[in-house]
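Kindly review this protein for my students:
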Amino acid sequence: MTDLRSAAPALRQSSEKSAITMSGYGMLIVLLVALAATAGAFTQIDRMADWIVISWLLVSILIELFVLCGFYLLQPNQAAVVTLFGDYRGTDRTTGLRWTWPWMSKKKVSVRANNIISERIKVNDLRGNPIEMAAQVVWRVTDTAQALFDVDDYKAFVNVQIEAAVRTIGSRYPYDDFEHQEVTLRGNHDQVGSELREELIARLRVAGITVDECGFTHLAYAQEIAGAMLRRQQAQAVVAARQTLVEGAVGMVEMALAQLSAKQVVDLDDERRAAMVSNLMVVLCGERDTQPVVNTGSLYQ
């Protein structure tokens, strides 16, 4: 069986080259001379034969039309792609008034930086949790030939590839790691943003487009699990706070018992030591203010 992939023709990749064009100011002088010749022909109507005057007018008018059809204007960070009957002849990036042969087709392409913010899309992260993501991308055209001839619509191509790249990066990492042992979308913004830029550059290279900057403008759990994940984060925060509080309380109790024993303030047996530890832990770990209770009797009664 013939492999259809090997039988399919490979995409012919275009490459930008410089077009052979001229400055428009020289041809502007030619146009002014032709206009002067036209005006001069009218002054010779009564002095020369009619066929000479008519020929003079026709030649000067044809020259004017010929010169006028070749003018085009380029602003800074703008390029003109020149084609001849569908054949790519080059790209002109020289700013100002330009001129080329009238039968040459000229299509202007902006090479300025473009800023786009993608729509919010729903992506499943590495753990399968649905999250919402949106990205901001600064891109520009670097190869005008590839942008016009290798893809159908390079602006629509950019939008589609941004969405595909965001989905790829979003599914590569978890949204969050409560144990702080993995690379996450929320905790490693710079690293993930760099990978998103590399992914976009690789995808847009075929269209002659590069990415100067990109990052996430929106990153959150989807609405259907946002409430559950918020409660989970709150529970994790409470547990972490309790753990820190208990560790500190244990250290303070150890220090208090050690100083009482060292200074021989009171001689505590095991039962009194246990009671003191219990009281100190309640005081230090309790959420409410404790009320002191004065014991006027014996501990053993």
In short: The chain has a mean pLDDT of 81. The chain has eight helices and ten strands. The helical segments are 4-7, 24-43, 50-68, 144-149, 154-170, 189-204, 223-263, 270-285. The longest helix spans residues 223-263.
